[in-house]
């Protein structure tokens, strides 16, 4: 299995563990699964000499993603279940998912690094669909902005359309600086 395919499989497993666990009312299933999946990512998808740089990238982009997600929560765009474990304003399962998602920027999404417009488009369309899936499973609620869920998805799409190309650039610069 290629590195990129392994990364996609690990991400999908993590997404279902996090979102499915949250929807079932168990906020620990996803974070515990993500710990194992991150271990598998570092073992299967990252060369031994690249692990330190990969850990820095995952930490940097995971924290940045959590900051972006926190802004959605603070603005009232997303409503998370209050009965699940939280880390600050975010449920632990979202935090775990962001750190797992941070692994894609130097693996399965790496091919988009030289295509920032396409990266922005893919993110702007794909991310609202991911939130919609989480909503349909019952892991979170979308609070309609200006009375319209479409506006909310538009805001999420714009934010992700800016975040993903930036994250790809950060991942590339960390790779470049580590090579020096």
Helix and strand arrangement:
Blueprint: H1 3-23, H2 29-44, H3 51-74, E1 78-80, E2 86-87, E3 90-91, H4 92-101, H5 116-137, E4 140-142, H6 149-179
Helix pairs in contact: 1-2, 1-4, 2-4, 3-4, 3-6, 5-6
Mean pLDDT: 92
Estimate percent helicity. Answer: 55-70%
**Weakly predicted, low-confidence segments:** none
Q: Tell me the overall shape.
A: globular
Number of helices: 6
Order of helices and strands: HHHEEEHHEH
Largest sheet: 2 strands, antiparallel
By helix and strand content, what is the structural category? mainly alpha
How many independent structural domains?
A: 1
SS strand fraction:
5-15%
Number of strands: 4
Q: In angstroms, what separates the terminal alpha carbons? A: 30 Å
Describe this structure in words.
The two termini are 30 Å apart. The strands form two sheets. A two-stranded antiparallel ribbon has the order 1-4. The chain has one domain (3-179). Helix content is 69%, strand content 6%. It is built from six helices and four strands, in the order H-H-H-E-E-E-H-H-E-H. It is globular.
């Amino acid at each position: 299995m290629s590195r990129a395919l392994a990364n996609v499989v690990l991400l999908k497993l993590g997404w279902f563990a996090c979102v499915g666990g949250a929807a079932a009312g168990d906020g620990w299933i996803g974070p515990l699964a993500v710990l194992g999946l991150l271990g598998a990512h570092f073992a299967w998808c990252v060369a031994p000499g690249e692990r330190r740089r990969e850990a820095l990238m995952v930490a940097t982009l995971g924290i940045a993603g959590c900051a972006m997600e926190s802004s959605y929560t603070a603005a009232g765009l997303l409503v998370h279940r209050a009965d699940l474990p939280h880390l600050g304003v975010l449920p632990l399962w979202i935090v775990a998912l962001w750190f797992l998602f941070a692994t894609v920027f130097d693996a399965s999404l790496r091919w988009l690094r030289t295509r920032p417009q396409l990266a922005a488009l893919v993110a702007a369309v794909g991310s609202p669909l991911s939130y919609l899936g989480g909503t349909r499973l019952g892991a979170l609620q979308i609070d309609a902005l200006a009375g319209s869920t479409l506006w909310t998805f538009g805001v999420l799409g714009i934010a992700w359309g800016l975040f993903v190309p930036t994250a790809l650039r950060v991942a590339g610069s960390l790779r470049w600086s580590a090579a020096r």
